[in-house]
Design goal:
Keywords: Membrane, Transmembrane, Transmembrane helix
Oligomer: single chain
InterPro entries: Spore_GerAB, YkvI-like
CATH superfamily: Hydantoin permease
Organism: Oceanobacillus longus
Pfam family, one: Spore_permease
CATH class: Mainly Alpha
Order of helices and strands: HHHHHHHHHHHHHHHH
Helix content: over 70%
Protein name: GerAB/ArcD/ProY family transporter
Shape: globular
Number of strands: 0
Largest sheet: none
Distance between the termini: 35 Å
Structural class: mainly alpha
């Protein structure tokens, strides 16, 4: 039970911590100053939404996300949100691939080399199907989370930062809603595809509470660190590197490798949502669909990492608010339907 719960927890975290999150760019886009309460709200909302999605997926034993989506938004809107989810997964996976190129550029490698490496890795991963993604998440994510926490806590200690000194300033609390909404849509796609593999409610509880607490805690410490270097963030494509410049080159190398793996796991999760959905239409192996999708994505990576995040993420954060509202109200209106 615990092992299975942690397996799903790492899938949730792996879907969420990608190039945007791990680099600090996504957190800074939504949070920043006066956001402690917003991050606390995000932790609660995120755990609730994951629980609702996983329970629906478990109940329906869904092979892909469409039945789960229909249960959440209703039959009338399913078609529109189906297209929106596919576009979201497509564009965010493009962002992950661009993030791989940006990570390589930080070490003076050509942009195309970083992109080529992640494309090859994704093709190889999908030769193993869904189990390949679950296995790599269980191996990589504990190291990634531990590395990020270590750097952020060390930065907090070295800079003598106070973690709770500004709790009377919380005017940005509304940011919790678009930020949660942004991160929920890919989880509808990914968690909707594993319903037949979840065996108990306890697995769901461990996965949802664990992922919410982990992401909430890291988000708070990370955001607090970024506030201290706010003037320098504009100079960096990846804000994390503004923190890492205070540390030896070996740590920069180590964290850059972890950042790349964060990018990779999110790109893989996005591809899982896309290929399991498209497989229903094309009846081809997952790897073949993944190759075709990646070929379509490559031209879009030329727009650049930070440009894609600053333009696409806020739009989806607002558009996804409807799904967020439906998830939060689902326990209420599902009971009303039973009474009818």
């Amino acid at each position: 039970m615990w092992g299975a719960g942690f397996k799903w927890m790492f899938l949730i975290i792996g879907t969420t911590i990608g190039a945007g999150y791990a680099s600090g760019r996504e957190l800074w886009q939504f949070f920043g100053h006066e956001s402690g309460l917003a991050i606390l709200l995000f932790t609660v909302l995120f755990s609730i939404c994951c629980s609702v999605i996983m329970n629906i997926s478990h109940k329906l034993k869904a092979p892909h996300y469409l039945p789960v989506l229909q249960e959440i938004v209703g039959k009338r809107l399913t078609g529109a949100f189906d297209v929106m989810i596919l576009l979201y997964l497509f564009t965010t996976t493009v962002i992950m691939i661009a993030g791989s190129g940006a990570t390589g550029q930080a070490f003076n490698f050509p942009y195309w080399m970083g992109i080529g490496i992640i494309v090859i890795a994704l093709v190889l991963l999908f030769s193993k199907g869904v189990n390949g993604l679950l296995s790599i998440n269980q191996f990589i994510l504990p190291i990634l989370l531990g590395g990020m926490l270590y750097i952020l806590i060390m930065f907090t200690i070295d800079q003598e930062l106070a973690l709770f000194s500004h709790w009377h300033e919380q005017r940005n609390w509304m940011a919790a809603f678009p930020f949660t909404a942004l991160n929920i849509l890919p989880l509808v796609a990914v968690l909707g595809a594993i319903g037949s593999k979840v065996h108990s409610k306890k697995e769901i509880m461990i996965a949802c509470l664990g992922s919410g607490i982990c992401l909430g805690g890291i988000s708070y410490i990370y955001n607090n660190s970024l506030i201290q270097i706010a003037d320098e963030i504009l100079l960096y494509e990846i804000p994390l590197f503004a923190i890492l410049k205070h540390y030896p080159f070996e740590i920069l190398i180590f964290m850059s490798i972890l950042l790349w793996f964060a990018i990779f796991t999110t790109a893989a999760s996005g591809m899982l949502g896309i290929v399991t959905r498209l497989q229903e239409y094309f009846q081809k192996p997952l790897q073949s669909i993944a190759i075709g999708t990646l070929v379509l994505m490559l031209p879009l990576t030329t727009f650049g990492f930070s440009t894609l995040i600053s333009f696409i993420y806020p739009i989806y954060g607002i558009l996804n608010l409807y799904i967020l509202a439906r998830l939060l109200l689902y326990p209420l209106w599902s009971k009303l339907d039973k009474w009818k």
